[in-house]
Structure formats: C-alpha cells, structure tokens
Amino acid sequence: MRKPVRLPKPLIDEYEWQDHALCRALPVEEFFDMENSRGGRRERQERAAKEVCHRCPVIQQCLRHALAAEDYGVWGGTTAHERAEIRAGVAPFPVFAPAPALTPTPLEAAS
Ligand code: SF4
C-alpha cells in the first residue's frame, strides 16, 4: 500500500477566517436569496450584501476562497457573476481598502 507523500492541511487552518466573518450574525438569505431575484430587487440585495462585505475584516480571505469554490451568492464583496469574470480573466482581481483589524472571537476573548 502506498503511503501519502504529503498530508492535507488541517481544515481549521483553511477556514479559521470564518470565525471573524461579519455575515455570521446575519441571515444567510441576505447573501444568497438574490439568486432567485431579477432587476432592481436583485441589485438592491447584492448591494446590501456587498456593503456588509466591505466592512468585513476577512474580505480578502473570503474572496480567495470564493474564487476557488463558490459559484452562488455574494462572497468577498463580489457577486457570482463578478467572480466568473475574474476567473475568466475579463475582470481584474478586486483591490479593497484595508479591512479593520481582526477582533477576537468570543471563544478567543474568553480564553
Ligand atoms: S466578506 Fe462578506 S461573505 Fe465574506 S465573510 Fe465577510 S461578510 Fe461574509
């Protein structure tokens, strides 16, 4: 039996940034429901979700994850359509203003 050459990274290292996500306290529909909307309603939903993202301290990590793995909803300050354009090379990788400093999660603060 062949032994693995390299073990995968622990998942906690890959997803620890999600502990700091501003959207954790919000209904998931605010970031995904626009998939069923059209026109002005969809634009308002996307704009509202992106405004949350632009205040989020982990927007860069979220965007990198979303470009690799997420085809629906608003992630990392981008819509699904915008991420498809970035992946296809027809839109540049967005540069966001520096995010606010990370604050300890409730678990980190308690320890
Ligand atoms: S960037 Fe937006 S979708 Fe990503 S974790 Fe932050 S609030 Fe959530």
TrEMBL record:
Modification after translation, per record: Upon Fe-S cluster removal intramolecular disulfide bonds are formed.
Keywords: 4Fe-4S, Cytoplasm, Disulfide bond, DNA-binding, Iron, Iron-sulfur, Metal-binding, Transcription, Transcription regulation
PROSITE patterns: 4FE4S_WBL
Cofactor, free-text remark: Binds 1 [4Fe-4S] cluster per subunit. Following nitrosylation of the [4Fe-4S] cluster binds 1 [4Fe-8(NO)] cluster per subunit.
GO cellular component assignments: cytoplasm
The keyword Transcription appears for this protein: yes
InterPro entries: 4FE4S_WBL, Whib
UniProt superkingdom: Bacteria
Subcellular location per the Swiss-Prot or TrEMBL entry: Cytoplasm
Residues involved in [4Fe-4S] cluster binding: 23, 53, 56, 62
4Fe-4S Wbl-type domain residues: 22-85
GO term, biological process aspect, one: negative regulation of DNA-templated transcription
Cofactor: [4Fe-4S] cluster
Any one GO MF annotation of this record: metal ion binding
Family stated for the protein in its record: Belongs to the WhiB family.
Role summary: Acts as a transcriptional regulator. Probably redox-responsive. The apo- but not holo-form probably binds DNA.
Name this polypeptide is given: Transcriptional regulator WhiB
Native source species: Knoellia koreensis
